[in-house]
Every structure is written in C-alpha cells, then in structure tokens.
UniProtKB/TrEMBL annotation:
Organism listed in the record: Virgibacillus halodenitrificans
Protein name: Glutamate dehydrogenase
Signal peptide: none
Classification via PANTHER family: NADP-SPECIFIC GLUTAMATE DEHYDROGENASE 1-RELATED
Molecular-function annotations in GO: glutamate dehydrogenase (NADP+) activity
Pfam families xrefs: ELFV_dehydrog, ELFV_dehydrog_N
Transmembrane segment boundaries: none
Domain Glutamate/phenylalanine/leucine/valine/L-tryptophan dehydrogenase C-terminal: 221-462
Superkingdom of origin organism: Bacteria
Keywords: Oxidoreductase
Classification via SMART domains: ELFV_dehydrog
Subunit text: Homohexamer.
InterPro entries: Aminoacid_DH-like_N_sf, Glu/Leu/Phe/Val/Trp_DH, Glu/Leu/Phe/Val/Trp_DH_C, Glu/Leu/Phe/Val/Trp_DH_dimer, Glu_DH, Glu_Leu_Phe_Val_DH, NAD(P)-bd_dom_sf, NAD_bind_Glu_DH
Family according to the record: Belongs to the Glu/Leu/Phe/Val dehydrogenases family.
Length: 464
C-alpha cells in the first residue's frame, strides 16, 4: 500500500512523488533499525500515511529532518526489576521507559504492567503519546513505560514489592520537570501509591508532581479516574453533532471493563445511550435490557472479579467466552476500549454490515490499518485514539497544574476543563483535515494537528 493517501486536492505531481519516495525510504530505514517491532512499525506507518499532505505543503519539515528525529526516541531506558514473592522466591522482570520527545514539555505518559509489554509496544505507545499530548494543548512531551509484570493473581504485598523495586531504578530518570509517569493497563491508584512512596523515600522530598493518577489524599485530581472514558464520550458527542446524530437512544458496544470502559459507559448512559455489551479478557456479556453499570462496577472495581459473574445477577444477559466476538453485536456506536489491534478487517466489515454509525478508540491503536481504511471508505464517523482517548492525559496535566499551585479543583471544575479540551481537540482535527484537503478525515486531521505543533517547536528550539 502506498504511503500517500489518495489525494482529495490537486498537488504538484513531482512534489507528491518526492514526498512519497522520502516517506517510503524513511519507513524502510525505520524497519531496518527497529527489527521485530511490529506494533512500532504499525504506528509509524499510520502516521506517515497521514503526514504526506503537510510535507508537500511545508517542505521545511523534510529539509530539517523533523520526521527522522521524531521516530527516534530521545532516550530509551531498560532495566531489570527483581522482586520476591510471598514464598520467598526471586523473580526478575524487565522494566522500560521511553522518553520520546520533549519539544513541548517534560515527558508524559503512562506505565503499563502486563506480560505482553516489550520495547515495541512501549515505543508505539510513546510515539502515539507525542501526538496525543500535543493535541491536548497542554505543555507536555511524549513518553511511555512499563514492565512485563502481570499483576493478576499477585497478592497486595507482592505488587508492593514489585512497585518498589521498579521505582528504585526508574527514580533516577524522572522528576516533576523531567518525566512524569502515570497509570495505564495494570497500573492504578494502588500501584501509583506504592511507587510514589518509594520515590519519596529515595529522594527525601515530597514532589507531588512526579506522578499523576495519585490518590486524593496526597495530590491526586478529582475526575482523573473518569477522564479517559468521559473524554472519549465527549469526543463522540462532537462527532455525532457534526452529522446531526445523538447519543440519545443509540445502541453502544464497549470492549473492556476497566477504567476507560466503565466511565465511557457511565457518560454514554448519562447522555441517554443504551449500552448493551462489554468485556474482559475472558469473554463478553450481552444484555439486551442494557448493561447494569452498578453491577459491572461491583464486579470489577470492588470484587476484582470476571465479567462472566454478571449473568449470575442478571440471568437475562448472555456471556460468550471469546472477547474478540463482541463486535458481532449490532450497534450504532462501537467503542474499542481494551487493547491494541482488537478490531481487524473482518470485525470492521461486520460492524459496517450491522449498521454502525460511529467508532471511537478509547484504547491505544485498537483498530488495524485495514479496519481504519474500511471505516473511512464507508463514511463511518471515526475517532482515532490519539484524539478520542486524550482525556486521560489531559486531566493528568491538570493534576500537575494543581500540584504546582498546591491547590485542588472541584470535580465539576476539572470536568468542565476536560469538556473544553476535548471540544478543542475535535475542532482542531476538523480544521487540519479541511486545510489539507481531507474534510471529515479525523485520522489525518489528528496526526497533522498534533505533528505541526511539535515540529514547529523543534525548529524554533534549534533541535535540528
């Protein structure tokens, strides 16, 4: 597939060919220099596909080698994380922190604890984070990290020992004005608390701004837990408004049942939607009467149970022990909020055949390239991850601001700021897509809007 999308406006043929050759050559070098990193390759390819129009119009970005720098992290840190289980056995995991780009501010991005974590996944997440953070309008650069540690089945003490060991090494490379990690899959308020306590012990100072997603008792922000899910729905609301559609009485399917999924469901229900399905790694539930969110919260947030437990309380619901089949459920709005590449080409075809009107990515890169192309070709409203799920990092930045001022805003104040940020992200994506001849294409719009701000800052700072 060509790295240049079909043109919606006429461009000079030689300019198009030059940019196409440049991008294909650079992409080839990325593949050669980063072997066996499929997720990172996918993220780079998706971004390159979007950026051809801006490079044609602004050749200075090629002259200054902005993309060459952008796809190479400023710093990659890997380290061992030894810890002792409750039986006295020593385990060793691998920790990562990729500090990708600091043109707009200190590195900012979550930590993921999951057995699938490797350098490719951390780099793809970090690259996406650069654009996502830029779109928020907040003064933060892009980074990401984590470890191939699985918190499932571990005792509280085992998780605490792992977090302390992880932070003992990570503390050397982070700080409120250097790099500010947050949570991601497998890292919630508990893990952030253990890591913050270890950081404080090592540094001997109380630096509230070094981590976000903290507990409310020591510098956390109200609405942070809800932010990614709420933000996704605020973005969906803007997309639907543009097509004279509404969430009211729409049928919604949400993959996952963690923070993003739960609070996307909560806000969708507030806007009058009918959420009929959600999932976890063991399978999905379908409730034709509408998902009872209180039950889901009790199972997942209080009991740390499996979503299959839902049917014992609501016998009219159905449990299917294959989470990938959730997209067989007909819906007006699909919200992939679980993990990367969960919607493939076959899933996209099925969603389209079943009448889906809008898809918004609550997770990071949950749709394959082929799936995205199908949604766009069939005029499905599509909200890409770096725009639609930017609410979490936006409120993380607001948490940093509150820490710097040593004050706390109310839930309503934070939520109002979040709504404004998500509306601005949508409008900026729309404007960028329009400017470069791809009206309505929020994939291209989000990439260009995020890229231009970072690229211009790099040139202004003489990074080149």
């Amino acid at each position: 597939m060509s790295l240049i999308k079909e043109k919606k406006v006429s461009d000079d043929k030689s300019s198009v060919e030059n940019v196409e050759n440049y991008l294909e050559g650079l992409y080839k070098r990325v593949l050669e220099r980063n072997p066996n990193e499929g997720e990172f390759h996918q993220a780079v390819e998706l971004i390159f596909q979007s950026l051809s129009p801006v490079l044609i119009k602004n050749p200075i970005y090629i002259e200054k080698g902005i993309l060459e720098q952008l796809v190479e992290p400023e710093r990659v840190i890997t380290f061992r994380v030894p810890w002792v289980d409750d039986n006295g056995k020593v385990h060793v995991n691998r920790g990562f922190r990729v500090q990708f780009n600091s043109a707009l501010g200190p590195y900012k991005g979550g930590l993921r604890f999951h057995p699938s974590v490797n350098l490719s996944i951390v780099k793809f997440l970090g690259l996406e984070q650069i654009f996502k953070n830029s779109l928020t309008g907040q003064p933060i650069g892009g980074g990401k990290g984590g470890a191939d540690f699985d918190p499932k089945g571990k005792s509280d003490n085992e998780i605490m020992r792992f977090c302390r060991s992880f932070m003992t090494e990570l503390a050397k490379y982070i700080g409120p004005d250097v790099d500010i990690p947050a949570g991601d899959i497998g890292v919630g308020a508990r893990e952030i608390g253990y890591m913050f306590g270890q950081y404080k012990k090592i540094r001997g100072t109380f630096e509230a701004g070094v981590l976000t997603g903290k507990g409310l008792n020591y510098g956390g922000s109200l609405a942070r837990k809800e932010a990614t899910g709420y933000g996704t729905i605020y973005f969906v609301k803007e997309m639907l408004n543009s097509a004279n559609l509404t969430l009211q009485d729409s049928t919604v399917v949400v993959s996952g049942s963690g923070n993003v999924s739960i609070y996307a469901m909560e806000k969708a229900l507030e806007f009058g939607a009918n959420v009929v399905a959600c999932s976890d790694s063991s399978g999905y539930i379908y409730d034709p009467n509408g998902i009872n969110l209180d039950t889901v919260k009790q199972i997942k947030e209080v009991e740390s149970g499996r979503i299959a437990d839902y049917v014992a309380i609501h016998p009219n619901a159905e449990f299917v022990d294959d989470c990938s089949k959730i997209w067989t459920v007909p819906c007006d709005i699909a919200l992939p909020c679980a993990t990367q590449n969960e919607i493939d080409e076959a899933d996209a075809k099925l969603l389209i055949a079943n009448g889906v009107k809008a898809v918004a990515e609550g997770a990071n890169m949950p749709s394959t390239t082929e799936a995205i192309d199908l949604f766009l070709e069939n005029d499905i409203l599509f909200g890409p991850a770096k725009a639609a799920n930017a609410g979490g990092v936006a409120v993380s930045s607001l948490e940093m601001a509150q820490n710097s001022m040593r004050m706390s805003w109310t839930f309503e104040e934070v939520d109002m700021k979040l709504q404004e940020i998500m509306q601005n992200i949508y409008q900026n994506c729309v404007a960028a897509a329009e400017e470069y001849g791809y009206p309505g294409n929020l994939v291209i719009g989000s990439d260009i809007a995020g890229f231009e701000k970072v690229a211009n800052a790099m040139i202004e700072q003489g990074v080149v």
